[in-house]
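Why predict the complex rather than its parts? Because the way molecules touch one another can change local conformation, and only a joint prediction can capture that. The input here totals 225 residues.
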Amino acid sequence: EAQVTQNPRYLITVTGKKLTVTCSQNMNHEYMSWYRQDPGLGLRQIYYSMNVEVTDKGDVPEGYKVSRKEKRNFPLILESPSPNQTSLYFCASSLVPGYEQYFGPGTRLTVT
Amino acid sequence: AQTVTQSQPEMSVQEAETVTLSCTYDTSESDYYLFWYKQPPSRQMILVIRQEAYKQQNATENRFSVNFQKAAKSFSLKISDSQLGDAAMYFCAYRSNWYALNFGKGTSLLVTP
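Output of the joint prediction:
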């Protein structure tokens, strides 16, 4: 089944404790992206990747890191999480620009 | 950055009726793509419909259709014969060729029996 998977689905952590949210797709998509969703703000792009080893900042990259060492994986790293990073996070992928993005199920992160 | 505006935070429709959700966007580009996504309570993001800017014909997917007005930079979604399962948050999104996808803030659709 074609899908985007994210882990964990739920995470509660404390300020400053490094964490990684994994994202993997099995569709051989070139393009992957991370978004955060906050009430009243819609989805905002954090980082995106056009291919292996090619990443770029989205609209809200501060406090996040990403890497793309393999085509299928695009982890999101919070090296020192803060409470303002409490949010719902989505990973997405697509074959080429203009095609629909396939979204993962979301990761609910709470930073206390 | 391109902006996407959904002016209706909430909408309500009766089952079997038709509802239109509004979306406007701001861009200086001529070639781009527009999408409507649905987010039900499960939080999964589901693509509803897609429109390429170079196509004059409005996209249609079963009960869902769009009214794309390029000059006015308007991209509304019409849901016909509304069903209880259509209740969700709907997001309009704009995608340029530069790999950026910009979402509106969403419209919450309530469907009443």
